[in-house]
Write a structure and sequence with these properties.
Layout: E1 2-5, E2 8-10, E3 16-22, E4 29-35, E5 51-56, E6 59-60, E7 64-72, E8 75-81, E9 91-99, H1 100-108, E10 114-117, E11 124-133, H2 135-145, E12 148-153, E13 156-161, H3 162-166, E14 172-174, E15 184-187, E16 193-201, E17 207-213, E18 219-223, H4 230-245, E19 249-255, E20 265-268, E21 277-287, E22 292-298
Helix pairs in contact: 1-2
Length: 305
């Protein structure tokens, strides 16, 4: 395992190294525990915001930012996130007659992160307001309404079309025997949305009303969601349904390797009804010392929303 702290290679190897990587919605998290009986780690004088990077096999955490350090009983524990401290500073701003792509570029300038558009969210707004929100959450919330996602890794914010990602070809086919123990399957239904009914009166007095259905059983949301057009109301309603319904069919299993990454698609051929078929990895819990990955997967949403 190769470990860099503040861009310098260190010879000490951690006793444990856990790296959780998310497809979207959360920043990646790293936790390492070192034997510090010789003060090799504590003598570095680390502070919050310093950087750490771990490379092992197919895993490269990229540069991560230390969020916490504990020195206890001859051990040193380091916690780090894929977001710099600047990404948590709240801000206020109003944009008028602007595209979402332009807003993302503008907001990201303040974080120090680069932006890469795997897919471009080419949506235009009469007005868009950021009110006491940190940059990543603000952008993630707006992208969710449009069916897009954001993943931060290697100092870059990657913007992607979630539906397009889900319709890609699967990377590998697996059965229960390919997991270290029998994989777990579950079905979530408490938060499922059947339809979204939006009725909004614009500042000009125009009424916009839409009803969007997901085609599954669930609750009905009746909203007065601020929109400029009928098209925006439809897109936002679909985005809200996607965010709630995409975790209906879940799978979880551990594999003895470090081969997979968030966003990979696995075809599970012998799962129960509703789970068999393509499953997209949305979270990976990597035990880098133990050389295992616990894969959290979900079935892509069926239906055009």
């Amino acid at each position: 395992m190769t470990v860099y702290i503040n861009d310098s290679l260190i010879t000490e190897q951690p006793d444990t190294c856990k790296y959780t990587a998310y497809l979207e919605g959360q920043c990646d998290a790293l936790e390492m525990v070192f034997d510090d009986s010789e003060k090799a780690i504590s003598s570095l004088g680390l502070v919050k915001g310093d950087t750490v990077q771990v490379i092992e096999g197919n895993i490269d955490t990229g540069e991560m930012y230390i969020s916490g350090i504990d020195y206890t009983s001859g051990q040193a524990a380091i916690r780090a996130l894929s977001l710099p401290l600047s990404a948590f500073v709240t801000d206020n701003k109003l944009w008028e007659n602007v595209s979402l792509t332009a807003v993302i570029k503008d907001v990201m300038k303040k974080t120090g992160l680069k932006v890469e558009f795997i897919d471009k969210p080419n949506f235009n707004y009469k007005a868009l307001a950021q009110v006491e929100e940190c940059p990543i959450k603000f952008i993630a919330d707006k992208l969710m309404l449009e069916g897009f996602g954001i993943r931060v890794n290697h100092g870059t914010a990657y913007i992607f079309d979630e539906k397009k990602l889900e319709t890609g070809q699967y990377d590998v086919q697996m059965t229960a025997e390919d997991f270290e123990s029998a994989p777990e399957y579950s079905t979530k239904d408490a938060k499922l949305i059947a339809q979204v009914e939006n009725t909004y009166i614009t500042p000009e007095g125009k009424q916009i009303s839409t009803t969007q259905k997901s085609g599954i059983q669930g609750k009905i949301l009746r909203l007065s969601m601020a929109v400029d057009t009928v098209g925006a109301s439809i897109r936002f309603s679909n985005g809200m349904m996607r965010a709630a319904n995409k975790y209906e069919y879940l799978a979880k299993g551990t594999v003895q390797n470090l081969d997979h990454a968030p966003g990979d698609i696995i075809y599970i051929s012998d799962a129960p009804k509703g789970h068999t078929g393509e499953n997209i990895i949305y979270t990976i819990k990597n035990d880098i010392v133990g050389n295992t990955q616990t894969l959290l997967m979900r079935r892509p949403i069926e239906g055009d929303y």
